[in-house]
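QA checklist item 7 of 12: single-chain prediction sanity check.
[x] sequence parsed
[x] length recorded as 209
[x] structure emitted
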Amino acid sequence: MVRMFVLINVILVTLPLLEVLAGDDDEGETEMCTCIALGIKEDVKQCPNADSVTVVVDLKMNLQQSDNEDEADCVKLDGSIEATQEIKDSHEIRIGANLITENGMEPVFSCMADVCSSMKDEDAPWYPILKYFETTSCPIEAKVYDVEGLKMELGCIDGILTPEFCGEYLIEIAITKGLDTVMCILMGAEIFEVEKPCEECPEKQRKRK
């Protein structure tokens, strides 16, 4: 009987201590979230079958993530763009994004516009580059344009950082004049899921449960 009384007292004394210890462990755990992230390949490549190229692009890309949830991530560009001939009226710019699948390329987005008439369109994807070079009208001079630390915000892609868009993509940017391609570059990107501490994953990029 005495032993039973002692055992009960030990349990009563130990249980609160175990609860405190368990609580300390919970407080020390880091909450993890599934985050939808963007990855960008550093190298910008020339299209393999582009003929009549007069604009040569030599750029490196670096993805920079913002610590402020109210600010968009951006891509920083460094390198050069060399135009060996003027770009003027009748030149068109085309951007296309293709999902890489087991069966080949699946087009998911494309847009096209006249280079000269869209130069002042602030919503155009290429506007930050023209603004950086302080180019607002045609013709675009034939010369080497040095690029150092040019930042292009990626706020426009927030809507596709979702699980259904996960995969590898090949992005093609081309400038054409009639049937001739005067510039054509390829960029690689990937949208993927990654486990991160919730404090490092912006609310807008968290996978919903």
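[x] summary fact logged: The helical segments are 2-28, 127-132.
[ ] second reviewer sign-off
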